[in-house]
């Protein structure tokens, strides 16, 4: 049986993470992991909601050492937490020590402290051990679980570390605007550092000034791990960017203009990553040089029966992809578009079928549907619309009910109340008929006309 | 819950003109389908109430930075205390604007 180390750092004094400008070394991390592992309850599943990336990493390490599975749902709404408890009734919540609002038994990650005279011993984890179960929203109202084993995760981020330059230069520190609780941040802000010997910053900066301040606190070469949404705000607001070794961007398409401006102002290459929750990360490209994606070593992306599939490398079973792709002879591929049902808003992905299912599950809703009114301008943020038949519900009551079920970025704008949906005889909803219900509600000045 | 970025006791009532200006800025920056005077000074902006989310908050932050020269800060995305209400945002801007 193959066992793989928890971290790739080979010296106790190697920098593992930065927090508030202080470097925390690998020995400190292992001491924190060991103490927390002893304190975890005897349960099989946990929801790690720590906002502090270092605490999340301590929780992840302790769970791995104890053989416990970290659950990673798409959001933390009360409805999702209830469904998680259906999946894993013994789940508990590991948190930062504040009011986390999760309806599960809770445990706070204790304060970090070094251990004097602790022998250097990196825990070894079975490659087949289940590290995490990551959920997508699915289309039936049940979150779909995707099992992530330790071995494939390590293979995945080892491929990524080469692309990020971490294999050759582990003296880099990752600063990320994305949380470690979703697949992209899990791989690209945390695991890739743990498995290349690089470091990560514990913070999750949000505003442009926060991002610059987080970068400035770190001595040495810095890699910014972000999304088009955060990058656009950073470039729009910030005059001078701190010098970077690389920018890593994923979750949504990035315009060539934004990519070029980011490279010009940071002095660093910008790397885009392609992947999804089901398959993990699969490929990267540098958009100022090429539109084509180069898969990780061993990964194949191909089209079969009119669908795109990923297989090989860390992808344990052939996995269908939600995008329409065109594959070149050398294995590189281009993205041609997204399957019509999938939506991606500020990097959060879901399906219209799932959102409509949740809408129709609300008491008082007789019929309803979500739709994407327009393709957003590049780098802009598209908003969803919904048309609903709910004679007994007020707008605010319906929005409150939706807020308890779906992520806030998917809340509809506009939300249009009608007496009946314009269903065709087959029950289908013609898109044009739905769009005509939205049009009069467009605010003035918006250039929505595209004939 | 503590809100480290917002003064616990405002030094002075927020300037009504600033509140109006901010309400107008939010409505125009986000293309909201409401009139600026429909946003009450103490209504929650984030989550329930006006229903702004993190996408909106980055947009408003950008507009505030351009109009007032004030850069917003937060410990993390889940702690955008400045956006508790129009009044808390106005107080932060009044305390930090350069002019």
Q: Could you characterize the architecture of this molecule?
A:
The complex is a heterodimer of chains A (451) and B (99). Chain A is of the alpha/beta class. Chain A folds into two domains: 3-338, ANL, N-terminal domain (Rossmann fold), CATH 3.40.50.12780; 342-441, ANL, C-terminal domain (GMP Synthetase, Chain A, domain 3). In chain A, 27% of the residues lie in helices and 28% in strands. Chain A is built from eleven helices and 27 strands. In chain A, the strands form seven sheets. Chain A has a nine-stranded mixed sheet with strand order 3-2-12-11-13-14-15-16-17, with helices on both faces. Chain A has a six-stranded mixed sheet with strand order 7-6-4-5-9-10. Chain A has a three-stranded antiparallel sheet with strand order 18-19-20, with no helix packed on it. In chain A, strand 9 and strand 10 (144-149) form a beta hairpin. In chain A, helix 7 (228-237) packs across helix 8 (256-266). Chain A is globular and about 75 Å long. Chain B has one domain: Orthogonal Bundle (Non-ribosomal Peptide Synthetase Peptidyl Carrier Protein, Chain A), CATH 1.10.1200.10. The longest helix of chain B is centred in the N-terminal third of the chain and has 15 residues, at 16-30. The radius of gyration of chain B is 12 Å and the shape is globular. At the A-B interface, helix 6, helix 7 and helix 10 of A face helix 2 of B.
């Amino acid at each position: 049986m193959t066992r793989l180390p928890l971290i790739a750092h080979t010296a106790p004094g190697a920098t593992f993470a930065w927090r508030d400008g202080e470097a925390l070394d690998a020995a400190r991390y292992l001491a924190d992991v060991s103490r927390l592992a002893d304190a975890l309850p005897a349960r099989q599943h946990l929801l790690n909601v720590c906002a502090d990336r270092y605490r999340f990493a301590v929780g992840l390490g302790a769970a791995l050492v104890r053989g416990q599975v970290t659950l990673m749902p798409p959001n933390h709404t009360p409805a999702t937490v209830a469904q998680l408890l259906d999946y894993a009734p013994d789940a508990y919540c590991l948190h930062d020590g504040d009011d986390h609002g999760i309806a599960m038994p809770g445990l706070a990650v204790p304060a970090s402290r070094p251990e004097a005279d602790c022998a250097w011993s990196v825990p070894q984890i079975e490659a087949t051990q289940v590290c995490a179960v990551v959920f997508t929203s699915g289309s039936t109202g049940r979150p779909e679980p995707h099992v992530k084993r330790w071995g494939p995760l390590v293979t995945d981020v080892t491929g990524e570390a080469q692309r990020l330059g971490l294999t050759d230069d582990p003296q880099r520190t990752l600063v990320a605007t994305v949380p470690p609780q979703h697949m992209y941040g899990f791989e690209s802000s945390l695991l890739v550092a743990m498995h290349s010997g690089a470091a990560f910053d514990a913070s999750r900066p949000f505003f442009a000034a926060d991002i610059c301040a987080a970068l400035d606190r770190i001595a040495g070469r810095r890699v910014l791990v972000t999304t088009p949404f955060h990058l656009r705000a950073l470039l729009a607001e910030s005059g001078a960017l701190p010098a970077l070794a690389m920018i890593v961007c994923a979750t949504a398409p990035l315009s060539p203009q934004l990519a070029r401006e980011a490279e010009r102002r940071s002095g660093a290459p910008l790397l885009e990553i392609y992947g999804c929750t089901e398959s993990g990360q699969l490929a990267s490209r540098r958009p100022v040089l090429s539109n084509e994606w180069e898969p990780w070593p061993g990964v194949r992306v191909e089209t079969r029966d009119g669908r795109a599939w990923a297989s090989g490398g860390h992808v344990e079973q052939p996995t269908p992809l939600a995008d329409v792709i065109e594959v070149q002879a050398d294995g590189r591929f281009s993205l041609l578009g997204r399957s019509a049902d999938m939506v991606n808003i500020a990097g959060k992905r879901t399906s219209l079928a799932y959102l409509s299912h949740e809408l129709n599950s609300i008491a008082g809703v007789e019929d309803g549907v979500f739709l994407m009114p327009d393709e957003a301008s590049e780098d802009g943020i598209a908003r969803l619309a919904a048309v609903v038949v709910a004679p007994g519900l007020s707008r605010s009551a319906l929005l409150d009910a939706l807020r308890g079920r779906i992520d806030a970025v998917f809340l509809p704008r506009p939300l249009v109340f009608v007496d009946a949906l314009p269903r065709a005889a087959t029950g289908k909803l013609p898109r044009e008929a739905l769009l005509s219900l939205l049009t009069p509600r467009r605010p003035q000045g918006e250039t929505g006309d595209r004939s | 819950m503590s809100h480290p970025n917002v003064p616990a006791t405002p030094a002075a009532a927020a300037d009504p003109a600033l509140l109006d200006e901010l309400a107008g800025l939010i409505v125009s920056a986000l293309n909201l389908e409401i009139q600026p005077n429909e946003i009450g000074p103490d209504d929650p902006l984030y989550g329930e109430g006006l229903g702004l989310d993190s996408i909106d908050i980055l947009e408003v932050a950008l507009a505030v930075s351009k109009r007032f020269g004030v850069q917003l800060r937060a410990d993390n995305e889940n702690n955008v205390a400045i956006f508790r209400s129009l009044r808390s945002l106005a107080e932060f801007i009044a305390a930090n604007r350069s002019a």
